[in-house]
Design goal:
The complex is a heterodimer of chains A (523) and B (370).
Chain A (H helix, E strand, L loop, with lengths): L7 E12 L2 E12 L3 E5 L6 H8 L7 E6 L2 E3 L4 H6 L2 E4 L11 H6 L13 H14 L15 H14 L4 E5 L7 H16 L3 E6 L2 H7 L2 E6 L2 E7 L5 H9 L18 E11 L5 E11 L3 E5 L6 H9 L6 E6 L2 E2 L4 H7 L1 E4 L3 H5 L6 H6 L7 E2 L2 E2 L1 H14 L16 H13 L6 E5 L7 H16 L3 E5 L3 H7 L2 E6 L2 E7 L5 H8 L21
Parallel strand pairs in A: 3-8, 3-9, 6-7, 7-8, 13-20, 13-21, 16-19, 19-20
Antiparallel strand pairs in A: 1-2, 1-4, 4-5, 9-10, 11-12, 11-14, 14-15, 17-18, 21-22
Chain B lengths: L2 H5 L6 H29 L4 H13 L2 H26 L7 H18 L4 H30 L3 H23 L29 H19 L1 H11 L1 H6 L4 H28 L10 H11 L4 H24 L5 H15 L3 H6 L4 H5 L12
Helix pairs in contact in B: 2-3, 2-14, 3-4, 3-13, 4-8, 4-11, 4-12, 4-13, 5-6, 5-7, 5-11, 5-12, 6-7, 6-11, 8-9, 8-13, 9-11, 12-13, 13-14
Classes of the chains: A alpha/beta (523), B mainly alpha (370).
GO molecular function (chain A): ATP binding; ATP hydrolysis activity
Family (chain A): Belongs to the ABC transporter superfamily.
Membrane topology (chain A): Peripheral membrane protein
């Protein structure tokens, strides 16, 4: 694709986006040509969605220029962006299920008759014409709630086309689709591109990138590290661009001395996801005392369901879980009694009560210790919380301050302090322990986990961040589509290798039905 | 988007947060007072005169105070019942129905069983508690077991209770005579009154003791702690090992039982029998009382006193001016509206461009500290 500016529909120049003093996007440059399918790939949190939200007017940019057809534009709301021909197909559909297809498509841009009456007939004919023109077969009068996920996505696409979008942003569109629906979507994308639309395709699935895109931009830690033509690149190269790091954080630690005891033993676990699919499928793994096992994987491959099963927050559909040689209990309280300490990823929803004070947050889960008859020894509970604040260096914390007023890193320390301060906790599950945590706190959190390992506890870390996995794990498991596809010794593994397993490139499981070698034949 | 200004309201120290608990109701009362004054002026009366009548009519002299205390007693029970459940995140707005069923149970046991007073009174009170609990068991069970919205179920249970108790008072157990009521309770089941000026009775003492006991339970016991955590974040409570379904069920039943006691006090203390349709809506007023009290049992004492005073003053108001006693209800509703809108403290301190608050990504607060 030539770099002649007139050919570029969208050009984003030196975009910088900061939240407070956290920089989410550093100097990103990207150009989108007319009729181009441009893939934007990167790990979770690399800044793909943030960059697109800047383009779409959902977030104001801190610095830089957005040029649309060569002219500088400044969108303050998505409506501005839509008026200029930019459309977004969201991952989570924004549709009214009780409305028909046509009603959803015209919603907010309704054709009207005199006196502001809704012209439903025109809406239906226009919808029908539009869906025929782009080969997106849909009944304008069908109720959206009765449609399959793939068809609902078509409604989303038609919605943007109805608003005359020329640039369509697809935010991880295949995450919710079946392989068959994915193939149909790719056909649609090609057809749109041929009719002069430009498509930005956000994803982290490498096969799909190679199957459908013309050019590929790789994002890493808020920067666009490369923009490459599809024909010049292999999946391995993209994987290494995505995960390769200039700086590697590693915690200084001795060789693991795993004890003989299996603290977590999972056999043939099957668990259903929110849509009733097999999110975890006949998965088996084990974690022994004295080792840190890291579970790597792209988000949405069953990690959440797996952890919820272990924590007692979700009922497994099959298989068995043993904690410290005993079968999993029925409630979180039972599992705590078995020796499970769980640091959840969802701090605000599960791991903390943000409105409650810090001492209260540190006391939940330890209530039996402070029970004096029916009474709660508030003095003892507060004294212990005070001690934990000091021991775990929770900055800015006082006993009566609301947990929600702390920074993310310090909220995480409150959770960790509460969970790891249990004398009887022998299995520690830390889910995304460094998510939303700044570097200084990450190091101290990792150090604490290593100390726990050295004290003979079993530590199981689930993380979407490969750096974190490599930094602290003794053994690395990779989860892909609900199954463990690799079990590697951390000191022998490379990030590229793990990245390939995460992308499903080294498994016999076919996801899109497309072969990596022949991307053009997908449609 | 500055992080410092956004986190400022939540970092307020302990004392100010205590203060804010009192500021909310006081602001609500002030706003209601001002709006009420405007309304009175629009009706052609002098607001100062009207407010003075309300105050003197409810508080000037022993007889007036005794009437206020009488009016306050059922509100103490229903207000406390609502406060208990709301603090645990359960919206028991069925106190009206629970009170009616409790009253019916107390009324039946009061006339049908003959026992010495020392046993009869506790038995009637227990019957009322059990009746209220049984009526609360339906929404409680549906909520805890199947996640059915308790607001809806409570709202439906209220008229059912009214009609069911009405059926007993007009057909099944109707006392002879023109009035739709059960036979009078035996003297051994009566709560003693303090003076001939009003019907205020030992039920008031029971209510006050209950408020204090629940304040202690809330503040000092493991159960009270668990209820609070469940109310603020049930997911977190469950994850933390609290048996959320069981505790929620218990709180709901306790709340219903306390509401049932309001019925016992009415039947055994004020009327001496179960009268059909006796309640002017004490169960609903209890919601307002609990809201004004910010769901604190001690706060319930103050707000029930205030609502009782307004109700007793409204009688005087009706006699002395051209206004009806509904004015007082309007004042009470304004208080509830203001509290429900959560204006006052939160509104003043969080007064910022809404976009700045909602657009902030959840994790960006992680950055500045540490």
């Amino acid at each position: 694709m030539a770099s002649d500016t007139s050919k570029h529909v969208v050009e984003m120049r030196n975009i910088v986006k900061r939240f407070g003093n956290f920089t989410a996007i550093h100097n990103a440059n990207i150009t989108i040509g007319r009729g181009e399918i441009h893939a934007l790939v990167g790990e979770n949190g690399a800044g793909k969605s943030t960059l697109m939200n800047v383009l779409y007017g959902l977030l104001p940019r801190t610095e830089g220029d957005v040029l649309l057809r060569g002219k500088s534009v400044h969108f303050s709301t998505p409506n501005d962006a839509i008026a200029q021909g930019i459309g977004m197909v969201h991952q989570h559909f924004k549709l009214a299920p009780s409305f028909t297809v046509a009603e959803n498509i015209v919603l907010g841009a309704e054709p009207t008759l005199a006196m502001g009456r809704l012209n439903m007939r025109r809406a239906e004919t226009e919808t029908g014409e539009l869906s025929k023109r782009f080969g997106l077969d849909l009944d304008p009068r069908a109720m959206v709630g009765s449609l399959s996920v793939g068809l609902r996505q078509r409604v989303e696409i038609l919605k943007t086309l109805y608003r005359k979008a020329e640039v369509l942003v697809f935010d991880e569109p295949t995450a919710v689709l079946t392989p068959q629906e994915t193939r149909e979507l790719f056909a649609t994308m090609r057809q749109l591109a041929q009719s002069g639309h430009s498509i930005i395709f956000i994803t982290h699935k490498l096969r799909e990138v190679l199957a459908v895109s013309d050019r590929i931009s790789v994002m890493k830690q808020g920067e666009i590290v490369a923009t490459i033509d599809n024909k010049d690149v292999t999946a391995q190269e993209i994987a290494s661009l995505m995960v390769g790091r200039s700086v590697l954080l590693r915690v200084a630690k001795d060789e693991a001395k795993p004890g003989g005891r299996t603290m977590l033993n999972i056999r043939n676990l099957t668990a259903l996801g929110e849509r009733g699919e097999n999110a975890v499928h006949k998965l088996s793994l084990s974690v022994r005392s004295g080792e840190i096992v890291g579970l790597a994987g792209v988000q949405g491959n069953g990690q959440d369901e797996l952890v919820e099963c272990i924590a007692g927050l979700r009922q497994p559909a099959g298989g068995k879980i043993e904690i410290c040689d005993k079968p999993l209990g029925a409630t979180p309280a039972d599992n705590r009694a078995l020796g499970l300490a769980y640091v959840p990823a969802d701090r605000g929803g599960v791991g903390l009560s943000l409105q409650s004070s810090i001492w209260e947050n540190m006391t939940v889960g330890h209530l039996p210790k402070f029970k004096r008859g029916q009474f709660l020894s508030i003095g003892d509970a507060r004294a212990r919380a005070d001690e934990l604040i000091k021991r775990y260096d929770v900055r800015g914390a006082t006993l009566d301050k609301a947990a929600g007023s702390l920074s993310g890193g310090n909220q995480q320390k409150v959770q960790i302090a509460r969970e790891l301060s249990r004398e009887d906790g022998s299995l520690i599950i830390a889910e995304q322990p460094s998510q939303g945590v700044d570097i200084g706190a990450i190091e101290s959190i990792h150090r604490i986990l290593v100390e726990m390992r050295d004290a003979g506890k079993a530590v199981f870390v689930i993380s979407a961040d490969l750096d974190e996995i490599f930094s602290i794990s003794d053994r690395i498991l990779v989860i892909y589509r609900g199954q463990i596809v690799a079990d590697l010794k951390a000191s022998d593994a490379t990030q590229e290798e793990v990245g390939r397993y995460m992308g499903g490139l080294e498994t016999p499981i076919v996801d899109t039905g497309a072969s990596v070698k022949e991307p053009a034949r997908v449609c | 988007m500055s992080v410092e200004t956004l986190s400022a309201p939540t970092t307020r120290p302990y004392l100010t947060s205590l203060l804010s608990a009192v500021v909310n109701p006081i602001m609500a009362l002030a706003i209601a007072g001002i709006l009420g004054a405007l309304l009175v002026m629009a009706l052609g009366e002098n607001p100062f005169e009207v407010y003075w009548l309300l105050i003197s009519g409810s508080l000037a002299g022993i007889p007036n105070i005794l009437v206020t205390l009488q009016m306050m007693t059922p509100l103490l029970f229903t207000g406390l019942a609502v406060a208990i459940s709301f603090r645990a995140g359960l919206a028991n707005i069925g106190a009206e129905g629970q009170m009616l069923v409790g009253a019916l149970c107390a009324g039946i046991v009061g006339f049908a069983v003959d026992l010495p007073a020392l046993l009869h009174v506790p038995l009637c009170i227990a019957a009322a508690f059990a009746g209220g609990m049984a009526w609360a068991a339906v929404p409680a069970f549906l909520r805890v077991k199947f996640g059915v919205n308790e607001l809806v179920v409570c709202l439906m249970m209220n008229p059912i209770a009214l009609l069911l108790t009405g059926y007993f008072a007009t057909h099944v157990l109707k006392a002879p005579g023109p009035t739709n009521k059960l036979p009078d309770v035996l003297p051994s089941a009566k709560l003693s009154t303090f003076s001939f000026y009003s019907q205020v009775n030992t039920g008031l003492i029971l209510a006050l003791v209950l408020c204090v006991v629940l304040a202690i339970i809330n503040a000092r016991t493991v159960r009270g702690f668990e209820w609070k955590i469940i109310g603020l974040s049930p997911k977190f409570a469950y994850y933390g090992g609290i048996d959320v379904p069981k505790r929620a069920l218990n709180v709901f039943l306790l709340s219903g039982g306390v509401a049932g006691l309001a019925g016992a006090e009415q039947v055994m203390g004020q009327f001496g029998a179960y009268y059909d349709n006796f309640s002017p809506g004490y169960g609903f007023d209890g919601i307002a009382v609990a809201m004004l009290a910010q769901f604190h049992p001690i706060g319930v004492i103050f707000s029930a006193f205030l609502f009782g005073a307004l109700n007793s003053g409204s009688g005087v108001l009706q006699m002395m001016t051209g206004l009806t006693k509904h004015l007082v209800q309007v004042l009470q509703f304004i208080v509830v509206l203001v509290l429900a809108a959560k204006i006052s403290w939160d509104w003043l301190t969080h007064f910022k461009k809404p976009s700045e608050i909602t657009m902030r990504p959840s994790r960006s607060s992680t950055t500045s500290e540490t």
